[in-house]
UniProtKB/TrEMBL annotation:
Organism lineage: Bacteria, Pseudomonadati, Bacteroidota, Chitinophagia, Chitinophagales
Family, as annotated: Belongs to the peptidase M43B family.
Protein's GO biological process: proteolysis
Matches recorded under Pfam families: Peptidase_M43 (PF05572), Por_Secre_tail (PF18962)
Protein name: Putative secreted protein (Por secretion system target)
Signal peptide: 1-19
Keywords in alphabetical order: Disulfide bond, Hydrolase, Metal-binding, Metalloprotease, Protease, Signal, Zinc
Domain Secretion system C-terminal sorting: 633-705
């Protein structure tokens, strides 16, 4: 019986632990700062600005009423388990909690009734998409069975379709809420602008069974929608009421009218509740939305908290106040749009272009015909008549008739006319534009030292997907030169972003071998001996099809890349002795055809990377290798032996070496052949004498005699 009682007691304590509220916002921020220490300065700057903003007197008795459009992304293995009604119940709670019209606000103790704050912030489910189409403000995405998302870095995986989540709507116009299954018993996590998150991650993530006030899987103590109220409080700049100081009263939430509090409160405490930081009644304000009590025991924001939230709304995320997301769009019967003109764009490699457009039917009637025109620069119009059957609010990608361009840079536009033979209801969405350039090809040998002011140099291109930090020209910094190409990773606050610097299209003119040489200088912010750190990475890739595909031939990061041996917390500017000459054999990747070289920076906020003196040259192959197809050299050899192929045979299986007595010495599989079409054997420890190199193919073999001498 005693054992049974102990087991039941243990289960009760375990269930109580599981039932305790757990918010991941502070932990996610602490981990982000640990990964990227420079982020601490960003957060500190925002905190200082908010503290100053709270001191500014407000003239109005009540803040201006605003309504913020909300899009709810339900990302679950069964996204229908969160119904539209459940979503609306959460919006209803937010509207009451943020205007102090919730019925339980009167349960606030009398001593604090005068501190109750009304932010006058209202919420609506979005009535239009970012593209201006009708919406109910709910997006449903199906995940793998049982899939849950980690809060690390604010649960970014749930925020991108590429990682199984749902892409954010424009965070300047919508408050994004993701409803999903969170790992680690967390109920929610917020990603505010004030914490330095990228724009496409801003918003809050809520555990699906702590969202709204109705639902078949709703938790018994988190069933009043207060988890979203709490996390959106973080979104608007509020900290936990105890200041996340681990109970030592050393920090506060920065709000004057919330009592100092040691640590979080769980369950439904009895008023008054005192602690080390507020040892006398009325004690701590455990019923504040920014504590950890059960939903039924959360009742208020204070007037001071409202001042901070309004500061963030009016100064940090101000575009939300002017969004039209709560206004339903006008839909016309006939409305054809060119949503995108994806090609040509940027650098192209062929003078013959066949533009592609994304045609979308924004009308209420099926689209069965439309005229599409495009124009390159001031050239002639090229017309195309499309017919088909495109349902309302669906789209298709079309390839338009071809035309030719000369070397130069161009603007291109495409537009629709006469959908279903009728005037277009909304001409404002008819046209899409882009810009592209067609450059002269370059021949080998090729050299670029970035000495001229233009950057990228003529024929070069930059790919900068996030439109943030990218390759630039560094004046007065070079390897025995006056300039170089630079990536300022020290100031880059976003991890894993790729930025490409592309050479012109190069023609090797049938040369047998092609080699790249370049100078590099790099440093890191973190101690280079740190294990498991996310380092900046420099890659060299080759593309033979205008960047549709590419092959990586070089990749270095951290200790293998840097030329400044120690951690450096200031911007790295290399001294003359802090450059290294690296080389890459491009031969196998270019296949004797036209190609581009790509220098790719993958940033993880370490420090600057420089490249200079790009030199791409050709080498003619050994005539014996060209004639025989395979060469074993040096022969005789003192130890190291190279087996080099002019072209790697498809049916080759392996290469083995035997001594004169027929005894097996060593062997390498075909996969050991490197990018120079070569495999290396080491016979240094073998005795002098005659050896035989045996090339073993699928249905044949070839043997070459080799001499080993000292």
């Amino acid at each position: 019986m005693r054992k049974l009682i102990l087991i039941l007691l243990a289960l009760f304590c375990f269930n109580q632990l599981i039932a305790q509220r757990k918010c991941g916002t502070s932990e996610a921020l602490q981990q982000m700062i640990k990964d990227n220490p420079k982020l601490a300065a960003v957060v500190s700057s925002y905190n200082n600005a908010m503290l100053k903003g709270q001191l500014k007197p407000r003239t109005e008795a009540q803040p201006q009423a605003v309504t913020i459009p909300v899009v709810v992304h339900i990302v679950l293995d069964n996204p229908d388990i969160v119904s539209d009604a459940q979503v609306q119940s959460q919006i209803d709670v937010l509207n009451k909690d943020y205007t102090a019209t919730n019925s339980d606000v009167m349960l606030t103790p009398a001593v604090w009734q005068s501190l109750i704050g009304n932010s006058n912030i209202n919420f609506c489910l979005a009535q239009r998409t970012p593209d201006g189409e009708p919406s109910n403000g709910i997006v449903r995405v199906k995940t793998a069975p049982g899939r849950s998302f980690q809060i690390y870095n604010g649960a970014p995986d749930v925020k991108y379709s590429t990682t199984g989540g749902s892409d954010a709507w424009d965070s300047k116009r919508y408050l994004n809420i993701w409803v999903t299954r969170l790992a680690g018993n967390y109920l929610g996590v917020a990603a505010p602008s004030t914490y330095g998150y990228p724009a496409d991650q801003l918003g809050v993530v809520i555990m699906y069974n702590a969202f709204g006030t109705i639902g078949q899987e709703l938790s018994g103590i988190y069933n009043k929608g207060r988890t979203a109220t709490h996390e959106i409080g973080h979104f608007f700049g509020l900290k936990h009421i105890w200041g996340d100081d681990n109970g030592d009263c050393s920090d506060d939430d920065g709000i004057a009218d919330t009592p100092l509090q040691g640590t979080n409160s769980f369950g439904c405490p009895t008023f008054p509740k005192t602690d080390l930081c507020s040892p006398t009644p009325p004690g701590i304000m455990f019923m504040n939305y920014m504590d950890y009590t059960d939903d039924a025991c959360m009742h208020l924001f204070t007037a001071g908290q409202v001042v901070r939230m309004r500061y963030v709304l009016e100064n940090v995320v101000q575009p939300l106040m002017n969004s039209n997301g709560c206004t339903p769009p006008v839909v016309f019967p006939n409305d054809a749009a060119i949503r995108q003109l994806p090609f040509p764009a940027g650098k192209i490699c062929d003078k013959n272009i066949m533009p592609s457009v994304v045609l979308r039917n924004k009308g209420s009637q099926p689209l069965t015909s439309v005229k599409i025109n495009y124009q390159v620069g001031s050239g002639p119009l090229v017309a195309y008549q499309w017919t088909g059957n495109l349902a309302s609010f669906t789209e298709t990608t079309l390839t338009l008739p071809s035309s030719k361009v000369d070397i130069g840079s161009y603007n291109i536009k495409a537009y629709t006319q006469l959908p279903n033979g009728q005037p277009d209801g909304d001409p404002s969405n008819d046209t899409a534009r882009n810009r592209f350039n067609y450059d002269a090809e370059a021949s080998l040998p090729f050299f670029e030292g970035f000495e001229n002011d233009s950057f990228p140099p003529p024929g070069w291109a930059i790919r900068n997907p996030d439109q943030s930090f990218t390759w630039e020209r560094a004046r007065d910094v070079g390897s025995n030169s006056k300039a170089s190409a630079l990536m300022r990773n020290l100031g880059y606050n976003t991890n894993y972003q790729q930025d490409d610097l592309l050479t012109p299209v190069l023609d090797p003119a049938g040369s047998d071998s092609v080699f790249l040489f370049f100078d590099v200088a790099a440093a890191v912010f973190t101690n280079p001996n740190t294990i498991g750190n996310m380092w900046d990475t420099l890659q060299v890739l080759v593309s033979t099809d205008c960047m549709n595909t590419s092959t990586m031939l070089y990749q270095k990061w951290g200790p293998n890349l840097i030329t400044h041996p120690t951690a450096l917390q200031t911007e790295f500017v290399p001294a003359a002795n802090e450059w290294r000459r690296d080389s890459v054999d491009l031969t196998a990747a270019v296949h004797k055809g036209k190609f581009q070289v790509i220098f790719r920076n993958i940033s993880n906020s370490e420090n600057n990377i420089y490249i200079d003196n790009i030199n791409i040259v050709t080498k003619e192959v050994n005539e014996d290798l060209r004639r025989q197809g395979v060469l074993v050299n040096p022969n005789p050899s003192s130890g190291l032996v190279w087996v080099t192929f002019y072209q790697v045979p498809e049916d080759l299986l392996q290469v083995s070496i035997y001594n004169a007595a027929g005894q097996f010495i060593t062997s390498l599989p075909k996969s050991a052949i490197n990018n120079a079409n070569r495999m290396t054997f080491n016979l240094v420890n073998e005795p002098n004498g005659v050896y035989f190199v045996k090339l073993i193919y699928r249905n044949r073999a070839n043997t070459i005699k080799l001499m080993k001498v000292r």
